Amino acid sequence: MQDGSAGTKRLPSLIKQFQAQVKRTSLGDALVRRMHFYYLPALRVFRQLTHAGLEERKAFAQMRLAQVLARARKTTYGRQVGRTTELEAWPFLGKDAVRQNPQALLAAPVWLTIPASTSGTTGLPLKLFRSYASVAVEQAALDWLYEQAGLNPRTCKVAVLRGENIKPPDDMRPPFWRFDAAGKRMVMSSNHLNTQTLFAYYEALQGFQPDCLWAYPTSLDQLCRLMVAHDLSLKIPLVITSSEMLGSHSHQLVRQALHAQLIDYYGQAERVNFAYSPKQGAYFFLPGYSWNELLFVQEDEQGALYEIVGTNLWNLTMPLVRYRTGDYVRFPQRLRPEHLEAICFGVEPFAGILGRTDDILIAPDGTHLTGIDHIPRDVEHVVRMQVIQEAPDYVRIRVIPTPEFNEQDRQTILQNAALKIPSTMRVEIELGDDLERTSQGKAPFVIRRV
After folding, report:
1. pLDDT (tens digit, 9 = 90+) per residue, 135-151?
2. What b/e string do you get for 200-230 counting C-beta neighbours within 10 Å, with b at 16 or more?
3. Number of neighbours of residue 2 by Cβ within 10 angstroms
4. How many CB atoms lie within 10 A of CB 359?
5. E strand or H helix at 80
6. How far from chain centre, in Å, is Cα 81?
7. Distance between CA 354 and CA 383 in Å, rounded?
8. CB 315 within 8 A of CB 134
9. Which of 47, 269, 357, 435 can pair with 386 through a Cys bridge, CB separation 3.0 to 4.6 Å?
């Protein structure tokens, strides 16, 4: 018999498993992601504020911010930092503080939340908790993107080419996709897409005729490059990308292979910012989604560097106040306060997010393996992780463990890796007290020596 403590620890995992099954159904879509009580008001806010001026946008954000701070003051973390109602008096919140004690930031019992986890782009496991309202608001933000292209998000057909696990990575027999939401969503495997399987993907997309393709940028580039090389093309009205940096040639590839409008958006699992790019090189923060700040870091010959800081305006279950995302934007010079304010409320654009574009592995047959950042998920006793491809058929996972690291953690890592890496590639785990670093002192999550 399990003790109460073990049962409590398993509860978030069981909730996540149930959530994963529900979200694939039309009923789950209606009852959770598009729950009318939360979804429709949020969508109306995004529609209205998009056409509003700076003062109206700011007034709404201040109203929501007061509710968030009132809730955050009641958390263990809020009591520790002084229960202040002035945002500027709150300290900046780093990822380490959230990772080390996520329960200190909870304003509701775990069983009333929707648990989530992420490793971000650093290989650093992070546990998060979301309210049902914030899940519906996130869907409203995504649906607002569909509306910008003239699509009805409730009826349009969507093909997904991201990090979903459809089948074992070394099973190269089609189909490489499944259908969810009563057939309105075709979810495809990125890790099976290569020259040999291209025509299976092409015929599936041609038969499904999606209104939108939602993809990782690296997976999208792989699909479009292969299609162009084989003189193939499709007509898909809209392509939405996220979760990775968009390549400089992606817009051209999408026009050539898919004849589509491309919208890229930026966000995080922490849900503290949301920015979208309706055209190449111009990103706007979505007004009403979060309270955004740009924290000055330094100024050099390349320009002025700012870190993106956000406070979510909708997740009262885990109110993250002044959360440092670790993501950066650069401007030609240091900005005046009024210019910063216009950018933070989505009135003026910024050029884009600084970040890495190649957190992928390449299989011996040339397949681009994406979703590698999923490997650290739900591994309990890891400080940091790094994935190093030493050869076409050899991957080394370097782990900085906590003292409690055990064989079960090792097996979880290997099981997660097996969902992304085919059996033709040997995977080994190496424990150490540091990661490999570049000449600039950075420790990339993925290093490819191939």
Report:
1. 999 999 999 999 999 99
2. bbbebbeebebbbbbbbbbbbbbbbebbeee
3. 9
4. 23
5. helix 76-80
6. 29
7. 24
8. yes
9. 435
Kindly state the average pLDDT of the residues 351-379: 80
Strands (DSSP E) found in 11-122:
114-118
Dist CA 94 CA 75 (whole Å): 16
**Strand partners of residue 189:** 162
Q: Nearest 5 degrees, angle CA 168-CA 170-CA 175?
A: 65
pLDDT digit string, tens, across residues 61-99: 999 999 999 999 999 999 999 878 899 999 999 998 998
Q: Any idea which residue has 């992601």 for tokens?
A: 33
pLDDT at 378: 84
Does the structure show a pLDDT above 70 at 346?
A: yes
Rounded distance between C-alpha atoms, residue 448 and residue 436, angstroms? 12
| C-alpha to C-alpha distance for 163 and 171, rounded to whole angstroms | 16
pLDDT in tens, 275-320: 999 998 899 999 999 999 999 988 877 788 899 999 999 999 999 9
Residue 433 pLDDT grade (very low, low, confident, very high; cuts 50, 70, 90): confident
DSSP per position, 241-293: E-SSPPPTTHHHHHHHHH--EEEEEEE-TT---EEEEEETTEEEE-TTTEEEE
How does pLDDT run across 97-134, given as a tens digit for each residue?
998 999 999 999 988 899 888 765 556 678 899 999 99
* Phi, psi angles (nearest 5°) of residue 390: -85, -30
Both tokens of 18, joined, read 């149930």
> What is d(CA 326, CA 247) in angstroms, rounded to the nearest whole number?
20
Distances (CA, A) of 377 to 84, 125, 281, 289, 405: 34, 6, 32, 26, 15
pLDDT at 36 over 80: yes
